[in-house]
Design brief:
Blueprint: H1 2-56, H2 62-134, H3 141-213, H4 217-244, E1 269-271, H5 277-282, E2 291-294, E3 300-302, E4 307-314, E5 326-332, E6 336-346, E7 353-354, E8 359-363, E9 373-380, E10 385-390, E11 398-403, E12 409-410, H6 423-428
Antiparallel strand pairs: 1-2, 2-9, 3-8, 4-5, 4-7, 5-6, 6-8, 6-9, 9-12, 10-11
Helix pairs in contact: 1-2, 2-3
Length: 432
């Protein structure tokens, strides 16, 4: 009867096991396909980026600006496709993990049942068989047999307990991995929504440019000239205002060491802090008050430490093409503050408490730029603040953005992880 029962049980179990294994294989194949898709799309994105870099080296024209916007849209759509594949992959991973959890929970239940049965058997052997055999007329050999049986059952219980601990540990690891995967899924879904908004903004930017220039190169060059003049006037106005602010820097209130983390996943510095050949050429003051990083439109920008968002805004609403454009200003808990400029999308809100690595925005080309990038200004928190002021350069309109005395600006590279600066940038550095 036992043999027949085992045979029937095996018949019922085989299809279930086979089906489960087949499903797991199918899921893994789909995960592998998503990885292949992501790799292919990333190669496509790299090609778009190379094309954008080439356009950025050309003289600014209406045709090149429109072409850059079109290629940026294609790149953004490829970014969206990457994110969608990552979402699919993460969903499949969670599906596999969920199946694994059910399997491990079943194994735990079986082990608990086996342990309980073993303990019951030991108790029965100890309380019944052994005492009966001791006082029976049979040989003492049966007593030793019972002792051996008890010992064998106990070893079996110990083995089941060890197995139970291992399965429980593996279950906890799987659940932890599942939570991580679900958090990643939420992050990816949020990123997908943001990328879709940036694509819409890209289309609006192209339409606005065509409207402003009436698709005329002459109109474009006039628009560019007017923006440069407005930028120079606005920058001088702001610089004069900040130069009048009285501030004595207290070094003891600044952190020591490289306490900040990179605001981007991939780091490439395109312009240094202070007076450089490029800053003399590009800025009315001759000095660059921050550090610029290469970052295509839609690149996530992260908080460099724990802190609080003191301000967000868009200077283009006051003075189009003259300053930061969309920005996020964060006061960190370590005595430093930073402003991220030229964003395409702001993710933070004023008063929000942020952690190191939180996405607070996406890089772009708002404000005055010669191409998409991330500008980072760093300040001593003792002096930096949000300010609202009427701008003569912008027809008396009120602008609101971070301001600080000139001597409160700091070089962010002094507080970030060590970075090997491109020799060309070093050659451009001048003494002030």
């Amino acid at each position: 009867m036992r043999s027949i029962s085992f045979f029937l049980l095996a018949i019922f179990l085989i299809p279930t096991v086979f089906s489960s294994a087949q499903t797991a294989t199918d899921v893994q194949n789909k995960i592998n396909q998503n990885n292949i898709n992501i790799q292919s799309l990333e190669q496509e994105i790299a090609a778009y980026q190379a094309e954008l870099d080439s356009i950025g080296q050309q003289k600014s024209s209406l045709a090149s600006s429109i072409k850059a916007l079109d290629i940026t849209r294609k790149k953004l759509n490829a970014d969206i496709a990457v994110t969608q594949n990552k979402i699919n992959k993460t969903n499949l991973t969670i599906q596999n993990l969920s199946t694994d959890i059910v399997t491990k929970e079943g194994a735990i239940e079986n082990n608990i049942h086996s342990i309980a049965l073993g303990i019951k058997n030991v108790n029965e052997l100890e309380q019944t068989s052994l005492m009966v055999n001791i006082f029976s007329e049979e040989s003492f050999s049966s007593v030793w047999n019972d002792i051996e049986n008890i010992s064998s059952v106990r070893e079996s219980v110990r083995a089941d307990i060890l197995k139970l601990r291992q399965v429980k540990g593996a279950l906890e690891d799987t659940r932890s991995t599942t939570i991580t995967a679900k958090n990643e899924l939420m992050k990816l879904r949020s990123q997908l929504s943001d990328q879709q908004k940036i694509v819409v903004q890209n289309t609006n930017d192209k339409n606005e440019l065509l409207k402003q220039t009436k698709n005329s190169e002459a109109n474009y060059q006039k628009l560019l000239k007017d923006r440069i003049a407005k930028r120079d006037a606005f920058e001088k106005e702001l610089r004069d205002y900040e130069s009048q602010l009285q501030f004595i820097l207290d070094p003891s209130k600044l952190p020591s060491g490289r306490v900040l983390s990179w605001p981007l996943d991939k780091v490439y510095v395109t312009q240094l802090f202070g007076k450089t050949v490029d800053s003399v050429r590009l800025y009315a003051s001759g000095t660059h008050n921050g550090v610029d990083f290469r970052a295509s439109v839609g690149t996530p920008v992260m908080s460099m430490s724990d802190g609080i968002v003191m301000g967000i805004g868009d200077t283009d609403l006051t003075c189009d093409g003259a300053s930061f454009g969309k920005f996020v200003f964060i006061q960190y808990n370590n005595g430093l503050s930073s402003a991220f400029g030229h964003l395409s999308l702001i993710k933070a809100y004023e008063g929000e408490v942020v952690k190191r690595g939180d996405v607070v925005g996406y890089s772009g080309a708002t404000g005055h730029v010669t191409g998409p990038h991330l500008h980072v200004s760093l300040y001593a928190s003792q002096a930096a603040k949000m300010a609202s002021k009427a701008s003569v350069a912008c027809d008396g309109r009120i602008y609101r953005l971070p301001v600080a005395p000139v001597n409160a600006y700091l070089n962010v590279l002094d507080y970030l992880p060590p970075y090997v600066i491109n020799q060309t940038l070093l050659n451009n550095k001048t003494t002030e």
